[in-house]
Amino acid sequence: MRHDWETRLAGRDCPFDKPAPVNSDSLFFVRSLQVSSLYLDRNQNYRGHCLLIFDPRHVARIDQLTGGEWAALSRDLYVAECAIFRALRPDHINVESLGNVTPHLHWHITPRNIEDDRWGGAIWTTSPEEMGHKTLTEGEYRQLADIIDREVEILLR
Ligand SMILES: [Zn+2]
What we know:
Layout: H1 2-9, E1 27-32, E2 36-41, E3 50-54, H2 67-88, E4 92-96, E5 106-112, H3 138-156
Helix pairs in contact: 2-3
The structure holds zinc ion.
Zinc ion (ZN) binds at residues 11, 14, 16-17, 58, 104.
């Protein structure tokens, strides 16, 4: 188990390393920001659930960034969270950086609504397999990505 973790920590076969596929089985590309890329999670059980993935190189944690990289990533996270909120107007938003499955620095930005099956708690209380799974059509992913992208454009003006 330790060897497996250390291999992944070092970036072996890391699915988030560049050149990453623009779209994959688990991610739908929204846009690139300063030092990161924003994707929709293909599982839209929580509508608007996005990942913001640090792009320049493989790092697992914030302490591995330079001060300048952290400042740029923080700005990207700010823009992404604001855009997602403005696009979807949820009751709340969760922002989490876990990296227990894929130890490449990324954030989950998850809109939350009072009607959620897990409102009042984290979405991660059970294994991913036990979570609800909702996929969209390619056109629906595109539409959702576009309304988030439009808000990013406005924020970057
Ligand atoms: Zn990586």
